[in-house]
């Protein structure tokens, strides 16, 4: 699931196997270039940092991340 793509804004955010990633992130490690959040709140905070430096984030991105919170970060199993 893609939450933001280049052309819609200045970030590319999509779901990965264990979380959500900001691809080719200007804040990421220079070698890897990605930022992978360990929670929806962490990605929302990360996108807030992008917004503070003037990066454009599509309006639907954060609501869509919260909508899919339990899909992207399923509760831990008690088994």
DSSP strand content:
15-25%
Radius of gyration: 12 Å
Please, how many helices?
A: 3
Shape: globular
**What is the average per-residue confidence, as pLDDT, rounded to a whole number?**
90
Low-confidence parts = none
User: How many individual domains?
Assistant: 1
Q: How much helical structure, as a percent, in the residues?
A: 25-40%
Largest sheet: 4 strands, antiparallel
Which sequence of SSEs, written as H and E, runs from N to C?
Answer: EEEEHHH
Structural class: alpha+beta
Lateral arrangement of strands in the main beta sheet:
1-2-3-4
Number of strands: 4
Gap from first CA to last CA: 28 Å
Q: In brief, what are we looking at here?
A:
With 79 residues, this protein is of the alpha+beta class.
List keywords for this structure.
about 20% strand, 3 helices, about 80 residues, four-stranded antiparallel β-sheet, alpha+beta
Task: Draw up the topology in text.
Blueprint: E1 2-4, E2 12-16, E3 19-23, E4 35-37, H1 40-52, H2 61-67, H3 69-72
Antiparallel strand pairs: 1-2, 2-3, 3-4
């Amino acid at each position: 699931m893609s939450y933001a793509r280049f052309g819609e804004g200045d970030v590319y955010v999509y779901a990965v196997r264990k979380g959500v990633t900001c691809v080719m992130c200007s804040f990421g490690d220079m070698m890897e270039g990605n930022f992978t959040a360990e929670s929806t709140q962490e990605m929302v905070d990360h996108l807030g940092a992008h917004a503070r430096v003037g990066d454009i984030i599509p309006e639907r991105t954060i609501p869509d991340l919260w909508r899919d919170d339990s899909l992207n970060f399923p509760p831990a199993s008690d088994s």
